[in-house]
Every structure is written in structure tokens, then in C-alpha cells.
Design goal:
about 280 residues; alpha+beta; Aminoglycoside 3'-phosphotransferase, Chain: A, domain 2; five-stranded antiparallel sheet; globular
Amino acid sequence: MGAHADLTAEAAVRALLGRDVARVSPLGGAYRVRLDGGTEVVAKRHAAVGALNAEVAGLRWLSPDTDGCPRVPGVLAFDDQWLVMEVVPAGRPSRDTAEGFGRELARLHGLGATAPGSAPPGGPVDAWIGLAPMRNVPGTRWGEWYVEHRVLPYLRKAVDLGVLHDPAPIEAVCGRIGQLAGPDEPPARLHGDLWSGNVLWSDRVWLIDPAAHGGHRETDLAMLALFGCPHLERILSAYDESAPLADGWRERVALHQLFPLLVHTVLFGGGYGAQAVASARSLA
């Protein structure tokens, strides 16, 4: 365990940065910390061993020394359980920013990865998507890898927990993955948990809380659609203009949403299991 594991946000920031703290405010599961002198930072704690190492590796991988990519917060300091980052400037969604984000996301995906399931450089195999464990194990073909390392582990957990009662439609999708996955593409550099809550709007879009790995670029786009995103169609249109998507990509959205829906089923139960089954049936 890290030396600062049991400290408060104030004490952890003081220890990690060697700076005095003037104020600490809650910030949606993290903390906004004002340092003496007025500089502000964000402090985030994760109790799971290795989770912050995975996040730091992901943030660094998603902030390449390449123009035209989305912004991510800079990492200022971290240990096993505390991460201190720069603050994202406040802003509001706009049509122009959405179009810029679509182009930037296409640029980021195009930087690529070594394989489906590959971890960011320095990132652990045992990573996380939000509060859920996620293994980054490299594969060869995206479809087969997606079934083995994303869909089936959480389908089994959901059935074992009794929160999903009709696995047959999802199992049928897994059995037909070769026909459903679409054309082969080079592995993309994915954010991996690109729901709207991890998209922050300023003068441009910033991305936070990655579950970064190599994968299919349609996965990030499907995540944007899962819980809604401001100006989504403008994002998608600008993306498609920059890096044209393969025919049938809209019909594959449900396929790429199976994994996050199953994760939500395991974590929260409720109607997510039924939604996952309905998504699978739509692919029949």
C-alpha cells in the first residue's frame, strides 16, 4: 500500500506535492483542492490495488505528443491510492466544440495500439472500468477477443448473481461474432469508458477517467451514445468525415454496448440486464 493511502485529500496533496492546502471541496467522487497561492488541482482516491497505476498509464497514453487529439488532465503526482491532476477549465457544450471533438477523437483512435486488448505502455493487465475490474489481455481478432475478455466474463457474473435471467440471446451473439463484428480494422487507441460523464466541455473537449486499451474504434462511439451526449450527431458526423466508418457501423452500436451494459448489470442490477438482452436481440 502507498505511504499516503489512509490520508485525507488535504494531507495526501500536501504530501505528494509538498505544498500547503487552503481549501478542499467535493467534486463528484474526487476533490478540488486549492493550494496556497491560488493554484487549484484535483485529487482522486481509488482503493483498489493497481487501479490508479492503470489510470495514470491511460492518461499518459491518451495525451500523446501529437497535435489534434482531445485533451486529458495532466498527471501531477500519484501513489498507490491517490492521484493529483490538473483542473479542467469550465465550459459548456457547443456545436463547434462537438465537431472539433469528433475530428480529435478520430485522430486519437488513428494513433493505434499493438493489439486488441493491449494495455497502455506501463499499464497493468488487471485494470478497471469505473468500479469494475477489466483485464487487458492482448488478442488477435477483435471479435473473438471481445467475446472472451469482455462479454462472457460479465455475462457469467450477471447470471451467477441472479441479475440476468435470460443469457441465451447474448450467448447467441457470442456464437455469431464472426458475422456481427464487421470488417477487420487495425486496433485503435481507445479511451475505453467514453460515456458522457467522462467528456468535459471547455473551449475544447477534455477526457477523464479512462479505461484505456487497444480495441475497436466503434466501441468509443457506442459508449458516447449509450447514455446520451450533447451534440452527438455532430461529433459522429465530424468523426466520419475525418476517418470514414465502415458500412453498417450504426447497426453494430448494440454489439459494442453489450459490455458496458453487462458491467452495469453486475454493479447495479435493475433494468440493465434486460437492456443488455434487448440489445442482443436487436442483433439477431
